[in-house]
Design a protein that fits this description.
The structure holds 2 protein chains of 2 kinds. By secondary structure, chain A is α+β, with helices and mostly antiparallel strands. Chain A contains 2 helices and 8 strands, in the order H-E-H-E-E-E-E-E-E-E. Chain A has one domain (about 25-145). Chain A has a 4-stranded antiparallel β-sheet with strand order 2-1-8-7, with no helix packed on it. A 4-stranded antiparallel β-sheet of chain A has the order 3-4-5-6, with no helix packed on it. In chain A, a hairpin with a 4-residue loop joins strand 4 (about 85-95) and strand 5. Among the domains of chain B are: about 1-60; about 130-160, no CATH class. Chain B has a two-stranded antiparallel sheet. Classes of the chains: A alpha+beta, B mainly alpha. The interface of A and B includes residues 6, 55 and 86 of A.
Chain lengths: ~150, ~170
């Protein structure tokens, strides 16, 4: 046992000197929401976002059009169709202990309509909205867990 | 009987001193009840022992050997106090930690690791606004873009305004 003591001490120091590696994959949730002033329906699936949406926008109705969960590997883009020929492409470009860096592209016919990069920590949501859809607008809600 | 008494009397002192063999002891013990002379000699020997042993035992009980403690204290007083260098050296020599050569590289590696990682652990500067910001960059050739970051609500909004440079009305 005594001869292993220095090795154990060395490993103990290594463990505290370098924090554990973050998991490589990031589970991302993409929700496509139609927000409008037609009616006052809140989709039950959006209950967790209702407070945020209500404090930020003046729409009365929020309807969930699509709900996708994607496991993102580093530098592997994943695409989700959004609406009216548009798609959202998400790529994990970085991952730290409590933050994932995601590149987000909204495309139509292969051309970028929007190109952005965001840092997402678990529990944080990024809403991308504005384009008209039906009687209202479309809002994309991005969140991540890892 | 006389021969027996003669031979037994020779054994009597060995018997008294408990140095006789089993056979000799048996011989003496068989002879003693039969011989008054030998019996008397044994009683004389026992009386002699008692006369010598009793005062010696009493003297030992009263003696505290003060001279022994005086000698020990004198030795302690005369003992030379080691210098601090000698104390350190003796501690190092005695310490099993330093006797094991394998500790030296382990301690060196630990010190290097601490020196390398301590700036990272203890001197972290506060992240700048751009480092804290959720949106690192945003580009659009089609929309006017507004970014709103709410720390309390843990939500960030990227709002796209359809302006004069709007995408073609294919949608």
């Amino acid at each position: 046992m005594k001869k292993w003591t220095p090795l154990l001490v060395f490993l103990f120091i290594l463990f505290f000197a370098f924090p554990p590696m973050a998991p490589a994959q990031v589970q991302t949730r993409v929700r496509v929401i139609e927000a409008s002033n037609v009616g006052s329906v809140i989709d039950p699936s959006l209950r967790d976002l209702h407070g945020q949406l209500g404090s930020l926008f003046r729409y009365t109705s929020y309807r969930l059009l699509r709900d996708e969960r994607i496991n993102l590997s580093p530098n592997q883009p994943a695409s989700v169709p959004v609406h009216q020929g548009r798609s959202i492409e998400i790529t994990q470009v970085g991952l730290q202990a409590n933050m994932a860096e995601l590149r987000v592209r909204i495309k139509r016919d292969g051309a970028d309509l929007l190109n952005t990069q965001v840092r997402l920590s678990p529990g944080r949501t990024v809403l991308i909205g504005g384009p008209k859809h039906g009687e209202g607008v479309v809002i994309l809600a991005l969140s991540a867990s890892f | 009987m006389k021969d027996s008494c003669s031979s037994t009397s020779q054994l009597l002192e060995r018997y008294f001193d408990r140095q006789a063999t089993d056979e000799e002891r048996s011989l003496v013990e068989r002879h003693l009840p039969l011989c008054q002379t030998c019996h008397e000699r044994l009683r004389v020997l026992e009386g002699l022992r008692k006369a010598i042993k009793t005062p010696v035992d009493e003297a030992l009980k009263e003696e505290t050997f003060p001279w022994v403690w005086e000698k020990i204290e004198r030795e302690i007083r005369l003992g030379k106090k080691p210098s601090w260098q000698e104390s350190v050296r003796s501690w190092i020599d005695l310490s099993p930690l330093f006797r094991k050569k394998v500790w030296i590289p382990a301690m060196a590696a630990a010190i290097i690791l601490i020196l390398v990682t301590s700036p990272l652990l203890f001197f972290k500067k506060d992240p700048s606004y751009s480092e804290r910001s959720v949106v690192e960059y945003v580009e659009s050739g089609v929309y006017n873009v507004m970014v709103y970051e709410s720390e309390n609500a843990k939500v960030t909004v990227i709002w796209l305004f359809e302006g004069p440079q709007n995408e073609s009305p294919a949608s």
